Amino acid sequence: MLDSYLPIIVLIGIAVGFAICTTIFSRLIGQKKPTEVKLAPYECGMPPVGSARERMSMKFYIIAMLFIVFDIEAVFLYPWAVMFKKLGLFGFVEMGVFIAILLVGYIYVWKKGALEWE
Amino acid sequence: MDNLMQIAMQNVNYGSIMPSLVLCIFGMALLLINVFLPRGKTTPASWIALIGLVVTAVFAARGWGDPQFGFAGHVALDKFASFSNIIFLFSAGLTILMSDEYLQREGYPIGEYYPLILFATAGAMWMASGTDMMTIFLGLEVLSISLYILAGMFRGQLRSNEAGLKYFLLGAFSTGFLVYGIALIYGVSGTTNVADIGMYLKSHPAMLGNPMTIAGMLLISVGFLFKIGAAPFHMWAPDVYQGAPTPITAFMSAGPKAAALVAFVRILILGLDGLQGDWTSLLWVLAVLTMTVGNIIAINQTNIKRMLAYSSISHAGYALVGLVAANQIGVSGILFYMLAYTFMNLGAFAVLVLAGKKGEENLTLEGFAGFGFKRPFLGVAMSIFLISLMGIPTTAGFAGKFYIFAGAIKAGYIWLAVLGVLNSAVSLYYYLRVMVYMYFKEPAEDYGWVTLHAGAVISIIISVVGVFYLGLIPGKVMEMARMALFF
Amino acid sequence: MQDYSLLWLIPFFPLVGSIINGLFGKKIRNEALIGTIGTAAIGASFVVSCTYFFKLLGDAEKIHETTIFGAMGSGTWMNVGQLQIDWGFLLDPLSALMIMVVTGVGSLIHLYSIGYMHGEEGFYRFFSYLNLFCFSMLMLVLGNNAMVMFIGWEGVGLCSYLLIGYYFEKKSAGDAAKKAFVVNRVGDFGFLIGLFLLFWSLGQKGVRTIRFTEIAANAHLLENGGTIVTIVTLCFFLGATGKSAQIPLYTWLPDAMEGPTPVSALIHAATMVTAGVYMIGRMNGLFAMAPDTMMVIAIVGAATAIFAASIGLAQNDIKRVLAYSTVSQLGYMFLAMGVGAFTAGIFHLMTHAFFKACLFLGSGSVIHGMHHAYHHAHLHDDPQDMRNMGGLRKKMPITFITFLVSTIAIAGIPGFSGFFSKDEILWWSFGSTRGGWILWVVGAIAAGMTAFYMFRLVFMTFFGEQKTDPRAKDHIPESGLTITIPLMVLGALAVIGGYIGVPAILGGANHIHHFLEPVFGQAQKLHAIEAHGSHATEYGLMGISVGIAVIGIFGAWFMYVKNPEMPKQLVAKFKWLHTAIFNKWFVDELYDAMFVNATKRAGRICWKGFDLPIIDGIVNGVGWLVRGFSAALRYTQSGQIHSYAMAMVIGAVIIVAAYVL
Question: Does the distance separating the beta carbons of B5 and A90 come in below 8 Å?
Answer without folding.
Answer: yes
